[in-house]
Specification:
By secondary structure, the protein is mainly beta. It has two helices and twelve strands.
Length: about 180
C-alpha cells in the first residue's frame, strides 16, 4: 500500500522515516520530492576501453553546485537528502514529470530496500539533443513509500548502506 502524505508526516514526526533536510513543500499527496545534491560521478572514459561487470569502474568526481550534462550522456549524482526507512517500508525513486519532459532520466535502478539508510545515488541520462544544466538544491525526483505486508527478515545492509555521496557501481563485488 502506498503511504499517503498524512501518514508520511506522522512517520517523519516519530522518526520512523527520516528524510533530512526536509521542507514542508517537498511532501506531496503520495510522495516526497527530493533535491539534487552537489556530488557527481562521470565514468573516466580514458581509463578503460570497456566496462565489465568483473572489475572496478573508475569515475571522475565532481563537486559542484551546477553541472552540465551533455546531450546523450550519462552521469551519477546524489540527492541532497539523507534517507532512512524502517524494515517494514520500501520506496521507489520516480522521475518528476517536469524533469522527464526535458529529456532527463533520473534513475534506472529505482528501488530502495527496507532498512536502507543513506543518500540516494541517481543515474542521470540526458536523452535530449541539447545539454542540460542542473543546479544543486532543485527538486529532481520523488520517493514513493509503501508498506510491506510484514517486517523484512533480512533488511538491507548491503554495500551502498550509509552512502553520503554518489557511489559508483560496485557490481564487481557481487558474489554470484
Amino acid at each position: 500500500m502506498i503511504i499517503s502524505d498524512k501518514t508520511l508526516k506522522k512517520m517523519i514526526g516519530t522518526g520512523e522515516i527520516q528524510v533530512t533536510p526536509l521542507t514542508e513543500n517537498q511532501i506531496q499527496p503520495a510522495s516526497i520530492d527530493v533535491r539534487l545534491g552537489s556530488h557527481f560521478l562521470k565514468i573516466d572514459e580514458h581509463f578503460m576501453d570497456a566496462i565489465t561487470l568483473d572489475s572496478e569502474i573508475h569515475y571522475n568526481e565532481i563537486d559542484a553546485d551546477e553541472i552540465v550534462i551533455p546531450a546523450h550522456s550519462f552521469m551519477l549524482a546524489t540527492t541532497q537528502e539523507y534517507i532512512k526507512i524502517p524494515d517494514n517500508v520500501t520506496a521507489f525513486v520516480e522521475g518528476r514529470s517536469s524533469i522527464g519532459r526535458i529529456g532527463l532520466f533520473i534513475q534506472n535502478a529505482g528501488w530502495v530496500d527496507p532498512g536502507f539508510e543513506g543518500k540516494i545515488t541517481l543515474e542521470l541520462y540526458n536523452a535530449n539533443i541539447l545539454p542540460i544544466r542542473l543546479k544543486a538544491g532543485k527538486r529532481i525526483c520523488q520517493l514513493v513509500f509503501a508498506f510491506m505486508d510484514e517486517k523484512a527478515d533480512n533488511p538491507y545492509r548491503g554495500k551502498y548502506q550509509g552512502q553520503n555521496k554518489a557511489v559508483g557501481s560496485q557490481v564487481y563485488k557481487d558474489v554470484d
